[in-house]
Automatic annotation (TrEMBL):
Protein name: GCVT N-terminal domain-containing protein
InterPro entries registered for this protein in UniProt: GcvT/YgfZ/DmdA, GCVT_N, TrmE/GcvT-like
Gene3D superfamilies the record matches: Aminomethyltransferase beta-barrel domains, Probable tRNA modification gtpase trme, domain 1
The species this protein was found in: Adineta steineri
GO cellular component terms, A-Z: mitochondrion
Domain GCVT N-terminal, first and last residues per copy: 54-198
Amino acid sequence: MNLTFVVDKGYWDLNLNSHVSLHLEADITPDVGYVVQNNIEHKNFEDLSKQGTFGKARWFNIVKKEYNACRKGVAIIDMTSFTKYELKSANRNIVDFLQMLCANNIDMPIGTVVHTGMSNEHNGYENDCSVIRLGEYHFLLVSSTSQSTRNIKWLKAHVPEDNSIFLLAVTSLYTALNLIGPNAKYLLFELSDENFNDFARMTCQV
């Protein structure tokens, strides 16, 4: 089922000198209980859904502008629908649990973000996710929207029966905005008094 609704989209130009507000329409699709935008277009554009399967897509120039904003300027990507789970324990049980499930080393310093896969006993891929260490025995797991049901089933299948590990779905509790592009840092400077010069890659600040 596709729906169309009108939204206001604001963006900064490449020089970050002005804020522009456009009246746009978004073509959206419900995805695992969340509404996900397929594309956003100016209301005067022709209907992008009436698209054949041969030749350059009608939305090519729109995607080109979005790509250039990500590569040359700054763009905001709404990732709120991404699956999020909070995992913690009173001791090292949660660390050992994630070390068993994840292909990469999860036992990293607090504030580290580890991109990893989860494999099954046949060396097959069960999940692709990012694991964020918020505390000594406290983690946040983030993965794609479409993996929500699969992820919780896989995690619950391996949680110890002694209830030593706390597992909570927190997708609806957090908004996730991906600020991307070479000018992303400068936009943050305009919005916050924090110094982001030393904000290292694959780390988090809470």
